[in-house]
Amino acid sequence: MRRFHGARRSGEGQILAIFAGGAILLVLITGLVIDGGNVFLQRRDSQNSADISAMAGTKRLADYYVLPTGTTGKAFTAGDNVYTAIQTRMGQNDCPTGVGSDCSWTARYVGQRSGSSFVDLGAVTATDTAPPGAFSGAKALGVTVNVTKTPRTYLLGVIGQSTWTVRTVATAITGQPTGAPQGQLLPIGLTELPTTEGALYALTSGANGPGNFGWLSWDGSNNAGSLATALCTPNNPAFNLPFEFAGDPGKTNASDVRACLQQWVDNQQTVLIPIVLKTNDPAGNASCSTGGNGNNFHYCVIALAAFVITGYSQPAVDQINGRFIGTIPYSANGNSSVPGPVTAPPTEGSTLYYLGLAQ
User: How wide is the angle at C-alpha 110 spanned by C-alphas 108 and 112, nearest 5°?
Assistant: First the structure.
């Protein structure tokens, strides 16, 4: 009788190879779940550190402008300047400087916004005795803080991935308002006045007007790049309510638009959403109405609502959802000022100035 020992050994070897491959695949999947979840938490912590530190540095910058000459704490010193304020907050939020830390940060002064970004005025250093522009040139309005964390992985080290790099950034600015201070006003037209704080609302439904999805255009342009800029780095003009803006037709399902919406979903920062009329102005302002078709469609903005963007549909941006925070009420007198850009730092002795996250 013939015996097929060689064939059986070969089959056993194949089973062992399949088992080994499956085990490695299981480790990789588990590693992606565990290490991926850790990276998500690290990113949220890193963003919080960047936000808090940018605010602390900008508050110290505001003190330099606002405090009267000769007041204790006005002038920068080696141990009391913008760098020190940022460093202190970083240390309190698990990002200390020094050997052995998996976290590092850099900070730069920024000036007035130019296009979609703020003008870079140079690095924030420990030896600063005054902010850029204190005596001449463009004045610093705030700081940008970049944070880099390299947390170690738990399981992905088996494939050589021993660390995972996480980068976050935050910009805060201060300024002397000429009207209402700048807010994060996104070009999304909501056709109802929300009433329940904490409730979720569909900010767009895809049927805000003939040929329109609900996008507004601040300058009348009609392209995905301008829309993405207005979403990523809010650049609305100043205006009084009520005010009429052109519609931006179509869903504009561009990767940049989705990425900019995702930025707000990830950061969970409060943004402002325009409330627009469905048809005509109930206060009788005939100069401001909602209507038209396609490229000629226009919206009448009557109020602003604060929201946190919670998500949007994929793959096409068919609906954007948000959690309602509060409303800036409509003024029938047309005196409600809407945020415009900050262009100058606070003045000495000022008791009213703007300080907040801008990006």
Answer: 175
267-313: pLDDT as tens digits: 888 788 888 887 654 555 556 888 877 778 888 888 888 888 999 88
CA nearest 358: which of 234, 226, 242?
234
Contact 235, 204 (CB under 8 A): no
**CA of residue 183 relative to chain centroid, distance:** 12
My answer on whether 220 and 308 are in the same domain is yes
Closest by CA position to 270, among listed 228, 232, 306, 313: 306
In this structure, the answer to whether residues 28 and 171 fall within a common structural domain is yes
Tell me which of 134, 158, 175 is where a domain ends.
175
pTM score over 0.70: no
pLDDT at 94: 80
Cα–Cα separations (whole angstroms), residue 99 to 168, 266, 334: 21, 30, 58
**Judgement on whether residues 160 and 272 belong to the same structural domain of the protein:** no
pLDDT value of residue 297? 84
**Best CA proximity match to 250, nearest among 201, 317, 193, 158:** 317
Sequence letter at residue 325: I
24 φ, ψ (degrees, to nearest 5): -65, -45
d(CA 244, CA 222): 16
356 part of a folded domain: no
